[in-house]
Write a structure and sequence with these properties.
48% of the residues lie in helices and 18% in strands. It is α/β, with parallel strands linked by helices. Strands 1-2-3-4-7-8-9-11 form an eight-stranded parallel beta barrel, surrounded by seven helices. Strands 5-6 form a two-stranded antiparallel sheet.
Length: 349
């Protein structure tokens, strides 16, 4: 199996933004050297959870400081984009990186963030479908013509094309079976979120739909079966289990506060009812207990991941290694231990 990295790049309590970006880019450059497969960036708006609400700008920097590491969004929030403009951005980034771009797409999980952009969450699924269909046409046509409910283009010349033909592969991240099934039907690559018991039905729904389709639209030879089937996990590695848990606990709880910040701001206590669900525990211990947070020595981390990979049937790990208020020193040390002592063993699974 392959291992990638996920990041929100959340806002720290006191660290200057310029320092935050410098540190994250250093972390990405090191990931490139250590052999991680891809870096996936979230897109969120109006929340300290995410400081790259315009991910294309950040990915332009990634394109120039890395050489092997693939990168992309997980995901672009399509209801907030002009498909035409996004097609041009994708094309630029794919050339800047010499064909290393991966394109995750989604509709946006938070009704609050969409609402700030004047998009009704109740309409966002249909807007997403229309935007996705239009984006595919834009990437694959010499002239864009699209007559959808939300997007309309007529006789638009499309001289900008990505380096990868016909376009970079599409990805979808989902925490429900509806989205997982749709991703499989489209032949996308896939990443699940949530506790192991929660993620498994979503992964199974994706696999069933992908098999019925006949396989991925753009197979990747480095993944068994041609499709990347991943799961997201927060991971911290140290020399001992006790040290790893001591360092990860405050960082994870800072991260959980960032995840819930917009919920608290809007005084919403029942996220599931409002469609802004966060599938993690209420604290570090609960998140560790449900399998989403993994802290320990290299041996402990490997054994826990080995068990989850076997239960879920995935071939891709999306490792969240730099989160909350972790220091750059601690994040780099964990990354190094993971890459040198855990990742080679995962590669054999």
């Amino acid at each position: 199996m392959k291992v990638g990295i996920f990041d929100h790049i959340e806002k720290p309590a006191t660290k200057p933004m310029a320092q935050l970006f410098d540190e994250r880019l250093e972390f990405a450059a090191r990931a490139d050297e250590l052999g991680f497969w891809c870096m996936h960036l979230a897109e969120h708006h109006c929340t300290p959870l995410n400081t790259v609400p315009v991910p294309g700008v950040y990915m332009g920097a990634l394109a120039r400081i890395t050489r092997r590491l693939r990168f992309g969004t997980l995901c672009y929030l399509l209801p907030l984009y002009s498909p035409l403009r996004l097609c041009e951005e994708i094309s630029m980034l794919d050339h800047l990186s010499r064909g290393r771009l991966e394109v995750g797409v989604g509709r946006g999980v938070s009704p609050f963030e969409l609402g700030y952009h004047r998009v009704d969450h109740a309409d966002s699924r249909n807007i997403f479908f229309d935007a996705y269909d239009c984006l595919v046409k834009a990437l694959t046509s010499e002239t864009l013509n699209h007559d959808g409910k939300y997007y309309k283009y007529a006789d638009v010349p499309m001289p900008m094309k990505p380096l990868q033909a016909p376009h970079p592969a599409f990805w979808y991240g989902s925490s429900n079976t509806i989205g997982a099934k749709w991703a499989g039907e489209q032949g996308m690559h896939f990443a699940a979120n949530g506790a192991t018991a929660y993620a498994k039905p979503n992964i199974d729904a994706y696999k069933e739909a992908l098999a019925a389709r006949g396989g991925p639209a753009q197979p990747k030879a480095e993944f068994s079966g041609g499709a990347a089937i991943g799961v997201l996990r927060h991971i911290f590695v140290a020399d001992t289990d006790a040290e790893a848990r001591r360092i990860m606990k405050p960082a994870m709880e800072h991260h959980l506060a960032s995840l819930n910040w917009i919920r608290s701001l809007n005084k919403i206590s029942d996220f599931d009812r409002r469609g802004a669900n966060v599938h993690r525990g209420v604290d570090f211990e609960a998140t560790e207990a449900n399998g989403m947070a993994i802290a320990g020595s290299p041996e402990t981390v490997y054994r826990k991941l080995e068990a989850q990979v076997g239960e879920l049937g995935v071939n891709y790990l999306v490792a969240y290694l730099f989160f909350g208020n972790l220091s750059l020193t601690d994040a780099l040390r964990s990354q190094q231990l993971f890459a040198r002592e855990v990742m080679p063993r995962l590669a054999k699974l």
